[in-house]
Amino acid sequence: MIPQLWQDKFREYRPFIQAASITHSIPQEIICGIISQESAWNPWSMRYEPAFTDRYVIPAYPKSSPTFRVQHGSSWGLMQIMGLVARELGCKDNLLYLLLPEIGITWGCRKLAALSKRYGAGKGRIEEYGTRGVLGQDVIASFNQGNDRWVDEDADGVHDINERYRNQDYVSAVLGYADEWSRIIGGGI
Predict the structure, then answer these.
(1) Long-range contacts of residues 129-136, Cβ cutoff 8 Å, at least 24 apart
(2) 5 touches 40 (CB < 8 A)
């Protein structure tokens, strides 16, 4: 059940969610599912992720300051977009702006759109494959996990529908929230 506080936040941020959904061809319920899982609708949510910093930030910027490393190795705002990822997508603003709902949702959806295009054979639209299909779930899994997201149980290099994601609990949680949000949004919240 979606808490009333989250529904109130959705009403407040709905114009940003709708605009990002239209611009980036990401279903609103997926955006809401990710926000629910990532930040519980807290726009001020920020989390430093040392493993991400060690794996991606330091190798890319070995002479960077500790402040730079923390900023770029942290996830920001409603969608918990990584600072380094926002920069790679073209964000030139101070990363603190990712805490503003309109900006954080925009950059989070830009990342989802890039992943949708990447895993959607160039089509660029997650809804063409359905959020329950392998490609739709690949987008959700990679938003959280990155490239190394599924266990290739039969070692064929192809992700079969029966193979689990390394972050399967995350994917399942986002899809569960998305189902609930679909009913709420469709019901005219």
Answers:
(1) 131/27, 131/29, 131/30, 131/175, 131/178, 132/175, 133/161, 134/159, 134/160, 134/161
(2) no
pTM (predicted TM-score): 0.88
| First-to-last C-alpha distance (Å) of the chain | 14
Which contiguous run of DSSP H or E holds residue 82?
strand 81-82
Look-up of token digits 């599912």: 33
Report CA-CA distances (Å) from 151 to 101, 166, 180: 34, 6, 28
Q: Tell me what the mean pLDDT of segment 133-137 comes to.
A: 65
Residue 39 has pLDDT above 80, yes or no: yes
**13-186 — its CATH code?**
1.10.530.10
Compute the distance between CA of residue 53 and CA of residue 97 in angstroms, rounded to an integer.
20
pLDDT of residue 183: 92
Residue count of the chain: 189
Beta strands 74-76; 81-82: pairing state:
antiparallel
- Residues 6 or more apart whose CB falls under 8 angstroms from that of 126 comprise 25, 26, 27, 30, 112, 116, 120, 135, 136, 139
* Average confidence (pLDDT) over 110-137: 65
